[in-house]
Each structure stands twice: as C-alpha cells, then as structure tokens.
C-alpha cells in the first residue's frame, strides 16, 4: 500500500474528509472539500481552525513517512492563520526542510486551492526511537523523578 | 446564549464530538469521548493529533470569548504532544495568560481525564480590529505591494 | 533616519554585532560576523542559538516597522534550527506574510551567507493598539480578575 | 565541572551576562542583571526580545543537559512575550515536561525577579543521535534528493 492510501485510511482523516494526492520522496499533498460540517459557526461558511490544522498535520506526516517508512509521531506543530478558509476547499502541500536520525522538520502551506494562502504550519516529527504502531511507547516516557 | 453553548453549536466542534463544560471569566474547559472515528490508524486506539488540536483551539477560543464577548479568531497556535491519546477521552482546560486590546494569549492543557498529560498548547487570539461573524474581514488583509 | 539605521542603533543589536542591510516595503535583511563571543562553547566555533534568534527577531521587526512606521513589539516567535551556525557569518532575510490592523506575521530565513540554511523563524508582531516608545503600555495589560 | 558552571562558561552566555543559579535533575534557573547594552532602543530601559530568548534557551538547555549528560542542541523554541522587560533583571526557571530517547520538551518562565511574568517559552531539544561537541554532525543532515 502506498503512503497516500495509508493516510486516507486513517479514521480521523476520513472523518474530516481528507483526500490525499501524493506522498513521495519527502513531499506530500492533499485537500478537503469544505462542507457545512467544517464550519466554525452555523452557516458562516468559514472553516474551523482545526480543519486546516488536521489537514496540515496529516499531509506533513505523510511527507515524513514517505521518507522514513515507519510511524513518525508529531512532536510539535505551529500553525499561523493568514486568511479565513471561506472557499470551496482547503489544499495543503508539505515539504521536508530537514530530515535527521532523531527528528524531521516539515513546512506545510494551506491554500484555498486558488490564490489565497489560508495558513502556514511547521511541524517536528519523530524519526528515531521506537517502532511499531505507536512510536511513543519506547524507552521514552520517563520524567525526572520517575 | 452562554459561551459554552455557543461553542457546542459550532458545526466542526459537533462533528468532532466536543462537549463544553464551562467558559467564564477567561477560563474554559471541555472534553471529547474518544471513538473509533478519532483514531490515527484503523483500530489502534490512539487519537489523531488533529483531535487534541481541535479541542485545544476550541477550548482556548472559548476562554478568550468569555472575556472579549465578540469573535476572536486564532492568529496562531503551537501544540506539543507529550503522550499518546490512547484512553477513553481527552479533556482540555484553557486559561488566559495575557489579555490585551489587540491580542490575547492562552495556555491549554490536554489530559486523558486522569493523570496523563497528552499535550500542551499555547495560542494567540485576536481581540482587536474587526467585528461581526468573521473578524478577519476588516482593513486587515493588505500585503506589501497590494 | 531610515529604519535600517534605527535598528543598528538598538543597544542590544549593537552588542550582538548586527549589521542591517535594508528595511523597506515590508522586507528587511541583516547579518552578523561571527566572533568567539558568539560561540555556544569555548572554541567550538558554533554560534549559540540566541545569536540566530536575536538576528531573526531584529530583522523581522525591521520588516514590520518598515511598513508600520511605529514601534511593533514582538508578540511571539518560533525558531527552528536546521544546521549548526559554524561558518563566518549569519545572514537573515525577513518578509511580511500578513499585515493587519492588529498584528503582522513575518517569515525569517537565516543562512550562513552561502548555501546552508541555519534556521527558519516565524514571528507575530503587534501593529495595533498603543503608540510611543513602548507599545505594550496601552490598555493592554489587564488580566482576568484584575 | 557541574552543569551550571559549564553554562556560565559559554562565550555567548557570558557576553549577554547570564548567571546560572542551578541545573540539576531536569530543572535549571538563571538570571541577567539588565544593563544599558540589553535595551531595545537607546535609553528606553526595555530589554530586547533576544535577551529573554537567549536566557530562556540557555536555562532550558541546562535543564536538559542536567539530565542527559551530553550536548543537547535546541531543535526549536517558541517564546511568547507577556510584558516588557523594564525592571532590573530577568530571571528564568526551566523544567522538563517530557524526556525521551530522541527529544526532550522544556517549559521556561521568565519573570522580572518580582511578580511580573515577562515571557513564556517552550523548547524541544535533541537527546538522541550524535555525540561530541556538536550533536548535529551525525548522520542527520541529508535532505530528500541528497
């Protein structure tokens, strides 16, 4: 199964309506057709901030996994909103800006599919450490004093 | 209508299953009962990062609006993931750390409803400028050269 | 006095050795010649993270002020480090990605002056509210309960 | 040599005037006595944003190294400014919120040494991968296509 298909089968990505275009060689792209359920207020036609974020995190993760070929949990992500998402869709493209043995850094741009930039996000994903379905469950969880 | 009810009626908050507990005096709290649709992979029982983010952004916004009493769009938010969200629910509490005439800063903590901290988020929300259903549509959009 | 000169006269910018190239129409550029005093360990020849940040915050602020023509305090900034700053200099270019009546968003790229990207930063600066030498001193400081 | 002493001997920390109080068991504290050289404009008595950031990054790094016992480069840091640093000093305390085999997450609070909170920062530091004076120089630097 290719990475794009894998991401479309994520239950929450399906629930939010994410369609993946591609995820290869450290780049990925996907989109959401905006429906009433994505709105931030009844009938206002503006997507909730969580829609653009979920798209950015998903497409960003796909870019990393296309390179890492194993689960790469998000460590942190920052999103800056630049314009309201009030068009017919949100489109996102993600690109690796650094790929390391411990972490990868990804830039994601979200547009309305036309000329308007809706948001920019930058995320750090874990590339080292644990394997398996949940990469957090390695020798990773101890805090000072534990 | 009180602020907590207003936020529960957001279409995307409903779609994701957010329940608000309170939103008063610059503090807010809410939660999501985790279901299969929130998972990051089929049957893995771990919430997608967009679930915790959408909860954090929503509860954070409710904390600001409980003080501002008008729409306060998110300018930016950063989320740091600290543990997998693999329990029965995600709970979030938000608190204003700065409230100004232009922007407000909010800290949000997301837990599993028991002892495990799942994520921490910090967001900046717009408190000044435009009014109405979409506060971005003020004299705000010009970029250099436009 | 032009904006670039104004920023070179900032005491801390002088202390860190920032030289401004330009600051006009929402764009700015500057650099630091790296010396022993910028190192993160004695003799290691790698600039401390605070050097790249101080350059990014300063050049970013200059980009905003070149448009705003009044003090624009930094609200928040995130910096991602991509490679060690172990060359002869750090160079930064800043560009406005959004300019609004309340806040502006700026992207800053820091390189070694040649081909290596050292860091990327994104900052939010205040463009609305108070005037005067310290724009924080407006009606901005009240917190819930005050 | 203890970690606090090690950090005081960082050339850039000395240049900026950082004094370390402690760095043990995943916690660290330090301060800067504010002088004219730290100002953001001649004679305004307000510290440049780079001063609080450099203190936060340094004290945050000390908290991580007190646990890791090897170099731990900063991967990213976000700082939110809450009030102008216009007092006699800046004080910072850092605490680990997550310590893993790949990365650690640290929260830093910066105050004026009295009751006013000046800034909050959150940083991610690398704990896995390369050793030696510069932990970036491991198998870490390849980008897609290289």
Overview of the structural elements:
Four copies of one chain form a homotetramer. By secondary structure, chain A is an alpha+beta fold. In chain A, strand 4 and strand 5 form a beta hairpin. The relative contact order of chain A is 0.18. Chains in contact: A-B, A-C, A-D, B-C, B-D, C-D. Chains A and B meet through helix 2, helix 3 and strand 3 of A and helix 2, helix 3 and strand 3 of B.
Give a brief outline of the structure.
Chain A has 146 residues and is an alpha+beta fold. The first copy, chain A, has 3 helices and 6 strands, in the order ααββαββββ. Chain A has one domain (3-126): Hotdog Thioesterase (Thiol Ester Dehydrase, Chain A).
- How many separate domains make up the residues of chain A? 1
Spatial strand arrangement across the major sheet of chain A: 1-2-4-5-6-3
The level of helicity of chain A is 10-25%
The number of helical runs of chain A is: 3
> According to CATH, what is the class of chain A?
Alpha Beta
Poorly predicted ranges of chain A: 131-146
The biggest sheet of chain A amounts to:
6 strands, antiparallel
SSE diagram, text form:
The structure is a homotetramer of 146-residue chains.
Chain A: H1 3-8, H2 11-16, E1 18-24, E2 27-33, H3 49-68, E3 74-81, E4 89-99, E5 103-111, E6 117-126
Antiparallel strand pairs in A: 1-2, 2-4, 3-6, 4-5, 5-6
